[in-house]
Write a structure and sequence with these properties.
The complex is a heterodimer. By secondary structure, chain A is an alpha/beta fold. Chain A has 14 helices and 20 strands. Among the domains of chain A are: 23-38 and 58-141 and 267-338, Rossmann fold (3-Layer(aba) Sandwich), CATH 3.40.50.300; 165-243, no CATH class; 421-505. Chain A is elongated and about 115 Å long. In chain B, 28% of the residues lie in helices and 24% in strands. In chain B, α5 (142-155) packs across α7. The chains are: A alpha/beta, B alpha/beta. Chains A and B meet through α5, α6, α7, α8 and α9 of A and α7, α8, α9, α10 and α11 of B.
Chain lengths: 534, 373
């Protein structure tokens, strides 16, 4: 917690001290896959064509697939994406609430993915989480005070750190006698240590009756004894029980998060949504964490309440030097609270950059589409809304290469054919319309007119397009009336032909993009997973 | 200007609960013209949904519409008159429940709800539900109704509608389900659609798709909309005129551009200042102090005064009804704030209230006062 400057006096320690701006969390190639079926025999697949006629492969939902990023102490990394893109799974995997399938999570130099048992449990006091629904994350039968104290109890807090030395700073007024102070080892439960030394300020005075008294901060007590030679002996120890200390801290935190310390004895149902989220904040802070994963903490709140909670979160971050991973789907909230922003799509991070850079100079077509689709609270805003086609594909069998390519408005033309820009645009639109069956069967010329207008792809590409149009066109020459099944087959055939010839041939389908370049609006590097930057 | 499609005058809806009477909607008046989208904006608890359900007379016990008049296209949806012994009774020209059900709901006024999963029956196919709806409300049967249903699904942008007709609601994504509900609402070609937070549960990209769809459909069919939302971004995007509600009342009513650029009521202003913006970085949000009081015991005078930065002593005494503060292209801009010149109640001379508004630490919902422990 403290700002240590040149800690040569401090005893050597296992953990390195993390300064503001140093990397506190480093996630590398993290993967989290889920088996899509559950049950005893779900993993078995029957395949009569092979021997043995069973296989045990299951479909894997690749919720988080090869994600890497790091977070500096004191910063807020925003994580944004549509529902189902894996944001929450990523947050939970970092906390080891879910077992990572692969990859590492370095937290303060220790790999959380490798930890287990007691060591992991202890580590959890340094990383906390705040959930979306303030209602269901609070036990309705516990008082708010108990809720806030619970994590402290679980971690045996307050606890004295044997590494920390204790000492006192004596201020004596009008006393000539020598003063000897003895400080108990465990006062670092009450006094925040600095550079691994907890220092208690003591004031020793002689009162009107000639008695010598020593005053120490709350929760501590000082015994004063005067020896025969006139020397003053002060003995400082912790006065309050651990229960009292926890209660004091809970009340202190309730006050910090904008509630009242006399809310200690209330039940969660007595609070509004915004206030409940504040209780969650106090609970997360109770164990003095360094890092908090906030999973959509304000999405269930009204705008005006949302602003109050966001402001409180920022104040707390400043005061306690917290690091946030802030997960949200609302880009306005992300823009407000984050320092850097990561955009996720279908288990991958597609863009990561400084906040201003990302919002002012987005480099991934998905980020652009997201930004364009937010309704701006300004009726004079003329920005055209770029509407994204289709829906997020299934994470069981995600598209190869760039996962966004099936919806990308900027899918790159395959090198194998010679497309002029407008020809490719028309072909791409036609290909997707056939795949999604968004138009009714019409006559060949109508289809051509609708999708291609005055352009027509030449060469081999042209032949493929002609073939596809012929397949889906109504009133084909070879048959007057097609059965519904045959129509369906023809559409499928056309779809496969187009996808195999064009979409699968594009660089977007063949290589996973990953490019880094200089930012326009900041010093950080800008990461974008898009082949347009090749 | 011609007669509006829907006229609501001084509508009051109350809920009679054990703890007292909740005045959920307390005397609101607004109009919807043909072919326009009218927004109903406010935070949760403002009475937006109760107001929109009152228009359909879909208020169940313990709730009741206790006053006001709702006129739709010349028909009286709700109206009271004074009986011989001074009691209020329903007027004779008010539509009977039977006619409400047969002629108004679905046919003339349709509703789209926020949660599409709850509005669709999970054990019937999507197509079957849509076909049934068409059969009940229009003179179409069997194959013709099915054809129409498929046509509607295609119309709202559902890919491969013949195939998806046979699927169940759980096989549809949230956005697709919302499209099905829009198809259902449009199936009887109503003149007015009440959309109650229809995009709130959706992702931004899907929300964008739905807003575009509504834009297109509105152009094509000329349907009027009442758009209930808490999102001022959506309002700016699609509404023509806006009503801002606070605690059961309309505090400001204006054409959309006017509302954002000539904001008149401090509540609207506070709402605008408390939102994080997608289009620029705001360093410090200005939250509205405190939270919305209970509608069971609203503050005296102007209901916003305990949270209002501009509140003065007079605001605690005088209750403002919305008055016209400006007129833009024939559309009135009404505001219910005593600051405005239209109210001559001595706001300028009134002393300010010194007491700080009761901030977040106020007692929570349902709980008693501060000292209940």
């Amino acid at each position: 917690m403290s700002d240590s400057v040149g800690s040569q006096d401090a005893p050597p320690q296992e953990e390195e001290r993390i300064e503001m701006g140093d990397t506190v969390l480093e996630v590398d190639s993290l993967k989290k896959h889920f088996g899509s079926d559950s049950g005893l025999l779900a993993g078995l697949e029957f395949d009569p064509g092979s021997f043995p006629p069973f296989s045990t492969g299951t479909d894997q939902v690749k919720a988080v697939d090869d994600v890497s990023f790091d977070i500096e102490k004191g910063e807020t990394l925003g994580l944004v994406g549509e529902s189902g893109c894996g944001k929450s799974t990523l947050g939970r995997t970092i906390l080891r609430l879910l077992e990572p399938t692969d990859g590492s999570i370095e937290f303060k130099g220790e790999d959380l993915a490798e930890l287990s048992g007691e060591r992991l449990r202890q580590k959890r006091s340094e990383i906390q989480m705040i959930f979306q629904d303030p209602q269901s994350s609070l036990d309705p039968r516990m008082k708010v005070g108990q809720i806030v104290e619970e994590p402290m109890k679980a971690h045996g807090m307050p606890e004295s750190d044997p590494e920390v030395e204790t000492t006192a700073e004596v201020e004596a007024t009008e006393l000539s006698e020598p003063i000897e102070v003895e400080v108990a080892d465990d006062i670092d439960m009450v006094v925040d240590p600095e550079n691994e030394v907890a220092t208690v300020p003591v004031r020793v005075t002689r009162d009107a009756d000639g008695e010598i008294t020593a005053s120490v901060p709350d929760q501590l007590e000082a015994d004063v004894a005067v020896s025969g030679e006139g020397a003053i002996h002060v003995d400082i120890s912790v006065a309050a029980s651990k229960d009292t200390l926890r209660r004091d801290r809970a009340e202190f935190l309730l006050d910090k998060v904008g509630l009242d310390s006399n809310h200690y004895n209330r039940y969660p149902h007595e609070f509004s949504g915004g206030q409940r989220q504040r209780v969650n904040l106090a609970r997360a802070l109770s164990v003095d964490p360094d890092f908090i994963v906030c999973d959509e903490p304000v999405s269930a709140l009204d705008v005006s309440i949302q602003a109050q909670v966001l402001n409180t979160m920022e104040e707390l971050q400043e005061e306690f030097g917290l690091t946030y991973l802030f997960i949200a789907h609302d880009l306005s909230v992300i823009r407000h609270i984050s320092d850097r922003v990561a955009v996720m799509y279908l288990g991958h991070i597609v863009e990561l950059a400084d906040k201003t850079e990302l919002f002012e100079n987005p480099q991934h077509p998905y980020t652009e589409a997201l930004l364009e689709s937010i309704p701006v609270p300004d009726p004079r805003d003329e920005g055209a809304r770029g509407v994204l086609e289709g829906e997020v594909p299934s994470p069981i069998d995600p598209p190869s290469g760039c996962r966004f390519r099936t919806r990308c408005p900027k899918l790159i033309a395959p090198d194998a054919y010679e497309f002029a820009e407008r020809e490719w645009e028309a072909t791409r639109a036609f290909m997707r319309a056939v795949k999604r069956r968004t138009f009714e069967p019409a006559h060949e010329s109508e289809i051509r007119e609708r999708f291609f207008g005055d352009v027509s792809p030449r060469g081999e590409a042209g032949e493929i397009v002609d073939e596809a149009i012929r397949l889906v066109a109504a009133g084909r020459e070879d048959q007057d009336e097609l059965e519904p099944d045959e129509t369906r087959e023809a559409w499928t055939e056309a779809t496969e032909l187009l996808l195999e010839s064009f979409a699968e041939e594009s660089i977007c389908a063949q290589e996973r993009p990953s490019y880094e370049f200089e930012s326009e609006h900041s010093d950080e590097t800008h990461f974008a997973a898009c082949h347009l930057h090749r | 200007m011609t007669e509006p499609l829907l006229r609501v005058e001084n509508l009051k809806t109350q809920f009679f609960t054990e703890t007292g009477t909740v005045r959920a909607v307390d005397g609101i008046s607004f109009e919807v013209n043909e072919g326009e989208i009218v927004g109903l904006v406010g935070e949760s608890g403002a009475g937006k949904s109760v107001a929109s359900m009152s228009l359909m007379r879909l208020i169940d016990s313990p709730g009741e519409i206790v006053g006001g008049e709702i006129t739709y296209n010349g028909e009286t949806i709700f109206g009271l008159e004074e009986g011989p012994d001074g009691e209020l009774r329903e007027r004779e020209d008010m539509l009977s429940p039977e006619r409400m059900r047969r002629e108004i709901r679905g046919n003339e006024i349709a509703v789209i709800f926020q949660d599409p999963m709850e509005s669709l029956n999970p054990v019937f196919t999507v197509g079957g539900q849509l076909r049934e709806f068409i059969e009940l409300n229009r003179d179409l049967e069997g194959a013709a109704a099915k054809e129409e249903a498929i046509e509607m699904l295609r119309e709202v942008g559902i890919p491969d509608p013949e195939e998806r007709y046979e699927e169940y609601p759980h096989q549809f994504s949230g956005g697709m389900r919302q499209r099905v509900l829009i198809a259902m609402a449009l199936a009887c070609e109503p003149n007015l659609i009440i959309a109650d937070e229809p995009t709130t549960a959706l992702d931004v990209t899907v929300e964008g798709q739905i807003l575009d769809l509504v834009d297109d459909l509105q152009e094509k069919y000329g349907t009027s909309f009442i758009w209930v939302t808490h999102d001022l971004g959506v309002v700016a995007e699609i509404c023509d005129r806006v009503n801002v509600m606070y605690l059961g009342e309309i505090v400001e009513q204006a054409p959309v551009d006017e509302l954002f650029y000539e904001t008149s009521h401090p509540y609207t202003n506070a709402l605008l200042n408390s939102m994080p913006r997608p289009d620029r970085t705001v360093d410090e949000l200005e939250p509205i102090e405190g939270m919305m009081p209970e509608a069971i015991n609203p503050p005296s005078g102007c209901r916003f005064h305990p949270r209002c930065p501009d509140a003065k002593e007079v605001c605690t005494r005088v209750h403002p009804d919305p008055k016209v503060v400006d007129t833009v292209d024939g559309d009135p801009h009404r505001s219910a704030c005593l600051k405005r010149d239209a109210f001559d109640v001595g706001y300028d001379e009134s002393p300010p209230i010194d007491a700080e508004p009761d901030v977040v630490a106020a007692a929570g919902s349902g709980a008693g006062g501060e000292d209940d422990e």
